[in-house]
């Protein structure tokens, strides 16, 4: 019997809600945070007869922007089509989408080739339950109930999301593993945030995945199943892995994989069949009669290209090159744009040093800054839940703190205390240093006595150092520091020990 010698292939369809002021075809507010049901609605998005849609130009621009960011072709002529189907969250009875002339063709992201990106409108939300909610504020936005009516005694529908601009990206079938699918999805989320196209918040349903999975033992693609509506990275990864295993078992037992749509059950951690190819919808696509096709050159594509900010991949490479960071360090900064921005402003505030003085420093200031920002300051922010927009420390003050450490004026133990104070009070590090009497003793005359005492009390370490054991010097400096209650300047202490012991 054949055993598991299959190559998996995955193609993703990713939906993202666009960050526009208004909906796709009417003037209703596009407000994902609106809790009160059915507030942002009008006759157009409710699909009343006799109403006419108008195209939201901002939404078209955002999709073009996404296309430019992945190096795609912007289709010169594009149009909208009707996709007809019935569902209670779709009051018009059809969705305006794009079928054969999408806005964006081709492109590439994170090594994955893109087929297309098209623009459409979102549907509403259904809420299935067995106990009526007490009041509207308790309205449940649980996405897991989206289009999965389990047995329930009633269903509510909220049309606030109906007609919100939705962008669908489709990849080529070129992804080889669940991990690669997740890596791609994360990079796409980051890209959309960088270019301001979508907040792509998975918990709020602003980004959702369909994963197409097939296995093959030859160089021809196998029959795929499509897992619909995955709403977290964890679900995407688990569902693809489950499907790879399930299909391998089907093939190993000599049976065939059927083309079908499956759903992901986040409780049972399994995919289950929803409908087969034979039962597939016939959407009867036809060109939207109320909206003429249009030329994308109306949207000043060159200007949109010129306005493109630095993209995550370019920023990673630049951070590694300019600041001497490892690729993992650059990646962890770039993964959060406000963190990357804070780091970059702080770097520019570090004191300029000549090569000679830099060579005396144990850790480069830029690396110290990286450490203090991503572990100490981030730790305080985590602890208190205060985001970058609201912290009392500015990049310049953090750079000053790092300069004090780099110049040996304070030690890391003190630096951590000062940082906490800075975080709490917003004072600059020098002020705190003075007020707390934390200033260091740098005067050689004051330090020499301590250095001689330490040498006299630690003959073994002195002997080791003279035999060439560099770590013993650190030990001696540490001893001196504890005699000075942490207030000695470690740089000066080091020089004095070296002088005495040479
Ligand atoms: P549909 O509209 O029916 O979902 P598409 O041809 O548009 O069909 O394909 C949708 C997605 O399925 C794309 O991401 C594509 O890469 C992927 N796909 C197509 N064939 C396969 C296959 N054999 N294995 C895995 N993914 C596939
Ligand atoms: Mg599909
Ligand atoms: Zn409306």
Helix tally equals 16
Most strands sheet: 10 strands, mixed
What oligomerization state is this entry in?
Answer: single chain
The count of domains is 3
Number of strands: 17
> How much helix, percentage-wise, in residues?
25-40%
Categorize the overall geometry: elongated
β-strand percent reads 15-25%
- What is the radius of gyration computed over CA atoms, rounded to a whole number of angstroms? 30 Å
Weakly predicted, low-confidence segments: 134-146
Mean pLDDT: 91
Bound molecules: adenosine-5'-diphosphate, magnesium ion, zinc ion
Distance between the termini: 75 Å
Secondary structure class reads alpha+beta
What does this structure look like?
The protein is of the alpha+beta class. The protein folds into 3 domains: 243 residues, no CATH class; 125 residues, no CATH class; 58 residues, Orthogonal Bundle (Arc Repressor Mutant, subunit A). The chain is 39% helix and 17% strand. The protein contains 16 helices and 17 strands. Strands 1, 2, 6, 7, 8, 11, 12, 13, 14 and 15 form a 10-stranded mixed β-sheet that branches. Strands 5-4-16 form a 3-stranded antiparallel β-sheet, with no helix packed on it. Strands 3-17 form a two-stranded antiparallel sheet. Strand 12 and strand 13 form a beta hairpin. Helix 5 packs across helix 6. The longest helix is centred in the middle third of the chain and has 20 residues. The site of zinc ion has 8 residues, from loops.
